[in-house]
Design goal:
The structure is a homodimer.
Chain A lengths: L17 H25 L4 H6 L1 H10 L14 E4 L5 H10 L5 H7 L28 H14 L6 E6 L6 H12 L5 E7 L2 E2 L2 E2 H4 L4 H7 L3 E6 L3 H12 L5 E6 L22 H10 L6 H8 L31 E2 H16 L8 E5 L3 H4 L2 H6 L4 E3 L4 H11 L5 E7 H6 L2 H9 L4 E6 L17 H5 L6 E3 L4 H13 L4 E4 L4 E2 L23 E4 L4 E6 L3 H13 L4 E6 L7 H8 L3 E9 L4 H12 L4 E7 L8 H7 L4 H15 L1
Parallel strand pairs in A: 1-2, 2-3, 3-7, 6-7, 9-10, 9-11, 11-12, 12-14, 13-14, 17-18, 17-19, 19-20
Antiparallel strand pairs in A: 4-5, 8-15, 16-18
Helix pairs in contact in A: 1-3, 1-4, 1-5, 1-11, 1-12, 3-4, 3-10, 5-12, 6-7, 6-16, 7-16, 13-20, 16-18, 21-25, 22-23
């Protein structure tokens, strides 16, 4: 689509020409009318902040090498809108720069199934990050900037933010990562209009914006956020600076609409018809535009662009096989596989970079070997999990492979909403969680991630792998790195026996290859069935042997993908009339609950006995904690035997 | 228990006497031996940070008015340990100050079912906040300080922190709340030893500690963190300051053990026997202590103190009744009930304060009337949800009633781990979530809290109320405010019809009173049963009427407590052979999943059809979004009819 705006992209001019300023001012006038028409027609939305950010939007999308033509590639600049509720301003700006027809957005704003959602989403061309929950945008921008740097690409990243969100802790975390990593390729712009929902920012929650950005190592510029000349010059100065730069843009809430200027109420309130007419006339427009837009609403609903799932392009190497003579912890098997893949690809001509993020736990989560072998791909982000989750997620859709390894409670429980936003943004993150379940050593209840299956069950896109032993971990790790989309692999802390078949050979080696959604049948029997979640398989196998010694033969299935129940295995198990599920996870929300739902939906009968965690665990050796919960082999066997007796 | 240490509590001395310094130094020497013995015996734990914090611990517990005698009351000072992994140092200090016998902790550290967990928990006398996940302690301290202020009590709060956690965003949020609220009664101490797990803090993640605390409005002092004189003087100066004060304590990791000093490896590694002997001899102790402790390990396991659940003491007023002639949104009914309770108790002689927290959403979450009527009880914490969750939680166990109201995605999804820590800490928080489910207006998928039941199902103590209409909301709100422990009430945005009985009278009024765990039977029938979650009841009732008009009679149950399934209602429903569950929540983890698990555990048969959310929702009017998900009355009825046909 054509537009009549001047390209400002190479910053060749030291300042904006008078003619270009006039063109941009006219574009701003029209965009303001678009904003007002959008929210009036939808009868909801956020007009005043959109008007406040408008010159920032128009200038940023003008200087950024982000166009309708290149916006689906990765060789370009990125723009992140952190205050996603100002979507009307963003849509009006993107239309002005030719990403789509203005009326498409104006007519279909906040209409069910339209891409022009209340908060910006990635299926609108030109939107690089879906936001809405405040405070996440800067961390996403840092992820894009890290990816650019790792790819040795000279693209830049611009992050537009509100002033209310300057108080969010995640912003500070992201600032520090940018400064530490020397990301001179990122520029943030703050819409500093001093108004948030509850009133003036100074009264709602005072924050010394300039001092905090400076303390965290950023260059700070200030400008009139409604002056195209000043915005252009500040952006140009920021781009040429050697540190990450923030531009504090002094603006006015509701700019150019007399009754909205400086009024907090218009943060999230649409004008009525009379107010609309008044505003449009003030802007020299024709209020009939509203009727024209109304006639187009939903007629048709625009489809938006398709988000293509990112696919990694690495060499994944050959699986390692761990023999049954020795116990190995799954996290070490993961670390070995990761180091294998890293070493195979590091410095290999044409390889995609594989960034591995760490929040001060590399030794425990076994990414140290990778760090040693691939130092430039290892990103230490400190004890800053919220920013790291978003940063690693954004990087994963910007031309690099991206993995974050952390304890279960830090990589998921602490940052659940960030991982949910990664899900919404259809990122390609690989998340390695260690110390899950009760298997955290003696660290106690705060560190026991007994909720990771439950948390992932709230998502729609994440895949979750919970391997049974080091061999399955190796294969699952390589599978995860290759698989498109968000994949999480969850592991405990302890060394585990290798699971073997009845002949004593490793079950998850040789011909075995990892298959998502398939339960592994470890042993057969007729009296009942046991489903064990991942690393609980060896304990269930202990139980199986105790039962067999009493002449009680159970089926034993090992489940590595609790979000995708193997319906065939479940039917076979259900036919026995008795199913026990075994997991060191909250029994409400893990494997047992998944089986119960699958049985109910499939109308499969039989008694289900969900063995799991029913209170916060104690601090002690893992085997003591597990036994105290009745989840050791002997307890499982006793429970299975009791259930059989009850039935007879 | 007696101790031979001097009381430093009234700060009457300008500085510590030489004699007192000597007594404290001797206590520190013994405590260091206790620390080393603990971790050596448990073969795990965090020795080096414990040694680093030891003088800070001993001095703080010396000056704090927190004693074995008063530690179960609220009229005293509070001490929060944010770097909870340094528990050995804390236990050794508490023992030195007479809270329990040293050998109780030394022998039973990190032993299953002992209170002396790897990370400090509240069942150890003298521990005011269980921690372990870094960065939360300051926010807890702010909650205690706010409670003291609201109670007009002159008690003080001391928060001990690590240096690694200075990067956590939540710390910055908590700082700002303290400064804005003028909490001169709080003092923070940072153990600045420059070492974290991965190496020197300056290299892992640089942070200008002094500049950030100053920028956020705190007074900053510095001292030698191993000098009792300097610590005492700094604490005295901080207590007398008119702003919140932080003391940067310059310390040495592993202090006084030659081979541990400045070595990151000893962050989380216990010494072996030889190393233990060497360390104890360096400290002038007798290594035989280890054997003595070993003999006592688990023999018996000490029981710890019982955490008494806090009970609010307010007047709760009479319920309001909303007539069926008018629709009302549940959030307004909540806001009215809250304002009623506030007004009844505000300025009432002897009333417990009721603090209501807001993160810049009062108008939308309907706490504005409360704020107007009870201004001194209303705490505006800005867009800082992480700190607010912890602050509100801590306040709730410090002599005030505490409620936080926010959108579902902000009050729970964004701060899930903070609410989990509130659960672990057995707080007494009331959490009002609005805009849950698909009922968020046009804000779109980032704002749709379709996971709140699933998140709460990961907890053990939280109660969750999802009322069906304004009448049930009113009664549930008053019930929640009165009920001990953590209670969450979840509401959508839209105005809803009042649910009536077959005679047309409001069902949740008159003789009705809210009962936790009881499903309300709205209509009867024999063909099958429908369970509707909270505010979906009116849509299910629409479906019920459509079905009845076709001669198909279903039972209809309204479920307000999805975490506690009404087993009797479920049995009655199951007997029909067909159950549909209806909720605007992820179908994996909400009411349907709870019913499935309860059916499986109860061995109840019948087909269960869980109707719920199966993809992220669009941005549009709530009724459009709900219809697009097949959750409107007509779709529910059609599904029920199809299920009946399938069965026949």
């Amino acid at each position: 689509m054509e537009n009549n705006l001047p390209s400002l992209r190479d910053f060749s001019a030291e300042s904006l020409s008078h003619g270009n300023v006039k063109l941009l001012e006219e574009a701003a006038r029209k965009a303001r009318i678009d904003v007002l028409t959008m929210v009036t027609l939808a009868e909801s939305g956020h007009p005043a902040g959109s008007l406040s950010s408008l010159e920032m939007y128009l200038t940023t999308y003008g200087v950024a090498n982000l166009t309708p033509e290149n916006c689906n590639s990765v060789d370009r600049d990125y723009v992140v809108i952190s205050h996603g509720h100002t979507s009307p301003g963003a849509y009006a700006t993107l239309a002005a720069w030719g990403f789509f027809k203005p009326l498409d957005a104006v007519a279909n704003f906040r209409l069910c199934s339209s891409p022009f959602q209340g908060h910006v989403e990635r299926n609108v061309p030109g939107i690089d990050w879906g936001s809405g929950n405040l405070g996440q945008g800067l961390a996403a921008g840092v992820g894009f900037a890290l990816a650019q740097k790792a790819r040795a690409h000279d693209g830049r990243v611009f992050v537009l933010m509100g002033d209310g969100e300057q108080t969010k802790g995640q912003v500070a975390e992201a600032r520090r990562i940018a400064a530490k990593e020397g990301l001179s390729n990122i520029t943030a712009l703050i819409d500093y209009n001093h108004i948030q929902i509850s009133g003036r920012t100074e009264e709602v929650m005072p924050v010394d914006v300039r001092a905090l950005w400076e303390a965290d190592g950023w260059g700070v510029l200030e400008c009139d956020g409604h002056s195209f000349e000043e915005l252009y010059t500040a952006l140009r100065d920021g781009v040429n600076d050697e540190v990450p730069t923030v531009i504090i843009c002094h603006t006015q809430m509701g700019k150019d609409v007399s009754y909205m200027e400086g009024v907090p109420d218009y943060h999230g309130k649409a004008p009525n018809r009379d107010q609309y007419e008044k505003a449009v006339r003030e802007l020299g427009g024709n209020p009939d535009y509203l009727e024209k837009a109304k006639a187009r609403r939903g007629n048709p609903v625009p489809s938006g662009r398709k988000i293509v799932t990112t696919i990694n392009n690495l060499l994944y190497g050959e699986p390692r096989t761990y023999g049954s003579e020795k116990k190995t912890d799954n996290r070490s098997a993961f670390g070995n596989a990761l180091a294998d893949v890293g070493t195979l690809n590091y410095k290999r001509e044409g390889s995609m970079p594989l960034l591995v993020f760490d929040c001060d736990l590399a030794g425990s989560v076994k990414t140290s070997d990778f760090a040693k072998n691939c130092p430039e791909w290892f990103v230490q982000t400190g004890i800053q999990e919220h920013a790291t989750a978003t940063t690693a997620g954004a990087a994963s859709v910007a031309g690099v492979a991206s993995l974050w390894a952390g304890f279960g409670v830090f990589g998921l429980s602490e940052v659940y909403n960030q991982q949910r936003l990664n899900d919404i943004n259809k990122t390609n993150l690989k998340l390695a969680l260690t110390h899950v379940g009760l298997d955290v050593g003696e660290d106690g209840m705060t560190h026991q991630a007994i909720d990771y299956v439950g948390l992932m069950r709230n998502m729609f896109g994440w895949k979750l792998l919970v391997p049974a032993d080091p061999n399955q971990t190796d294969r699952a790790t390589r599978w995860a790195l290759r698989e498109a989309g968000n994949v999480c692999i969850a592991m405990g802390r302890s060394k585990l026996p290798v699971i073997t078949n009845e002949g004593g050979e490793p079950l998850f080696a040789g011909d075995y290859s990892f298959e998502y959604g398939k339960a592994a049948k470890v042993r057969d029997g007729e009296e009942g069935a046991i489903f064990a979640l991942g690393a609980m398989t060896w304990r269930a196998l202990e139980a199986w042997e105790l039962l067999r010694n009493k002449g009680l033969n159970f089926k034993l299935f090992s489940v590595a993908t609790p979000l995708e129940i193997d319906q065939k295995a479940l039917e076979e198990a259900s036919a026995t009339g008795l199913i026990l599920s075994v997991e060191d996870h909250h029994y409400h929300n893990g494997l047992g609950a998944s089986l119960a739902l699958a049985m109910a939906e499939g109308n499969l009968h039989g008694k289900l006995v969900p063995l799991g965690v029913r209170s916060y665990g104690a601090s002690g050796r893992s085997e003591d904690v597990v036994a105290a919960m009745g989840l050791d082999g002997a307890s499982i066997a006793a429970k299975a035997e009791a259930c059989l007796k009850e039935r007879k």
